[in-house]
Specification:
With about 280 residues, the protein is α+β, with helices and mostly antiparallel strands. The chain is built from five helices and six strands. Among the domains are: about 1-70, no CATH class; about 105-195 and about 270-275, no CATH class. A three-stranded antiparallel β-sheet has the order 1-6-2, with no helix packed on it. A three-stranded antiparallel β-sheet has the order 3-5-4. It comes from Lawsonia intracellularis (strain PHE/MN1-00).
Length: about 280
């Protein structure tokens, strides 16, 4: 293609309608220029394998769309490509800032009652037909560098049992035979920073040790239990109580001083624990 170059074109090779009062002649459209434009457009159609149609006025548009689609498909977390945000989970601000596409198997908690598009609850559910319904996650977990994120069904169950049946398992189960993916179960669990082989390690609740003592040489204790134990044998001074009754038991009840529950926990807010599983096909 080239710019119009007939003698009556403008000095910068543009068209002019002319002005008879000056006079300036209108630009002559040469056959060479028209043929050049025509062949340039036809070349686009041929490259897109579209047969020229005299009745259509949208073939150039269709050819461009087809060539773009052939050259670069929509991007996924597994391959580069064109970005086509739909607002979930990718968003673009008014300033044109685009959010980061989540990574497959990424954990995130939401202030929502249902998981956003592309996410699933980390509750140990099973994704059926995972090789076709969730091919991105299926192929991701099968890659050698990601296989550590998966456990056998027996190991997964053992971890869940150790945690009391709820939570405690940040791993997947990829069943090649059944074509299913069992999701992690991290309900009620708190996240803490770690490195290396300790990534994904579950630990039961625990507390720092509490120690206390009291001294008595008036009476002897025949028995004690719980966090109390007998020690420090020595001489006991016997005293006489005319009523025949005396306090003979010492108790410990932490709830008289601090809030207590069935598990140790910090102050917390319930959020929906989710894992990114990618688009559903």
């Amino acid at each position: 293609m080239f710019r119009i170059d007939t003698p009556d074109a403008t000095p910068n090779n543009r068209f002019t309608e002319g002005d008879p009062t000056i006079p300036i002649e209108a630009t002559t459209v040469s056959a060479d220029w028209l043929n050049s434009v025509q062949e340039e457009l036809i070349a686009v159609l041929e490259h897109a394998e579209i047969e020229p149609n005299k009745q259509s006025t949208i073939q150039l548009r269709d050819a461009i769309d087809k060539l773009i689609e052939q050259r670069l498909s929509i991007a996924t977390s597994m391959k580069p490509g064109l970005v086509q945000p739909d607002g979930e989970p990718v968003q673009i601000t008014d300033e044109g800032v685009i959010s980061i596409i989540p990574t497959l198997s990424e954990f995130k908690d939401f202030f929502e009652k249902t998981p956003p598009k592309g996410w699933a609850v980390r509750d140990g559910s099973i994704l059926p037909d995972a090789d076709t319904a969730y091919p991105d996650l299926w192929n991701y977990l099968r890659k050698e560098k990601n296989t550590w994120k998966c456990k056998s069904q027996a190991d997964w169950t053992a971890l869940s049992t150790a945690a009391g049946g709820i939570g405690g398992v940040p791993f997947f189960v990829l069943d090649e035979a059944a074509k299913t993916i069992k999701l992690p179960d991290t309900r009620t669990d708190h996240i803490y920073g770690n490195v290396g082989d300790s990534i994904g390690k579950w630990e039961n609740d625990a507390m720092r040790n509490i120690t206390a003592w009291f001294y008595n040489n008036i009476i002897d204790f025949s028995n004690c239990g719980g966090i109390f134990y007998a020690s420090g044998h020595g001489t006991v001074i016997q005293t006489f109580n005319p009523s025949g009754y005396a306090n003979h038991q010492i108790n410990l009840d932490a709830s008289r001083a601090v809030p207590t529950a069935a598990q140790f926990r910090p102050r917390r807010i319930g959020l929906l624990p989710c894992v990114y599983v990618g688009g559903i096909h």
